[in-house]
Amino acid sequence: MSSQRVAQVADVYNLYHDGAVDLLVRFFREEGFSTPRDMIARNLQLILADQGCWTAVALEHGKAIGVITVTTMLYVEWGRLAEIGDLYVDPMHRGRGAGRRLVNAAIDWSRQRGCNGVYITLTPEGEARHRLSHFYQRLKFEPTGRTTMMFADLVRGGADETER
User: Fold this and answer.
1) Which of 31, 37, 86, 163 has CA atoms 20 to 30 A from the CA of 45?
2) pTM as predicted
3) Where are the domains of the chain?
């Protein structure tokens, strides 16, 4: 393992697209998700085409070793907020600042777009495996005390079907 720090963070465009997809595929597999590669690539294309989203890679010697995705939404209470959806650094390159550089770049990107805050949703599995709350607290993220819930069955039906 090299002790060299990450050289740069770069926006994902055509040049780094395949590297970003490769990292996201590894990330989801390591975390136990079964999302197929073609779906990851398709969804990344949607993110890249959306002005309210951003994706970047951490590079070492021109090779993508980490990836981050960010989306924004408007809320009545907060105005525009950004969410870090995905953050992954190749295990061989962890502990040298790539994750921190990616998060700081995401905060800068969000600030430049008028966001009033950046949040992250931590899964219990991610917390158990990686102690993610400690990483984010070192970067000045604070717990909100809110619980995130999701209705994800939009394809089959709507809320009316849950009442039947």
Assistant:
1) 31
2) 0.88
3) 8-162
What is the overall mean pLDDT for the chain?
Answer: 90
Show the tokens assigned to 103: 């998060």
CATH superfamily of 8-162: Gcn5-related N-acetyltransferase (GNAT) (3.40.630.30)
Read off the amino acid at residue 142: E
- DSSP assignments along 127-158, one per residue: HHHH-HHHHHHHTT-------------TTT--
Nearest 10 degrees: CA dihedral of 98, 101, 104, 110?
Answer: -80
pLDDT tens sequence across 137-150: 999 999 998 888 88
Which tokens in the block code for residue 90? Answer: 């190749």
The amino acid at 78: W
Could you tell me if residue 136 is left (phi over 0), alpha (psi between -120 and 50 degrees) or otherwise beta? alpha
143 contact partners, CB below 8 Å, separation of at least 6: 133
70 beta partners:
54, 84
Give every CB contact of residue 30 below 8 A, 6+ residues apart in sequence.
Answer: none
Q: How many residues make up the chain in this entry?
A: 164
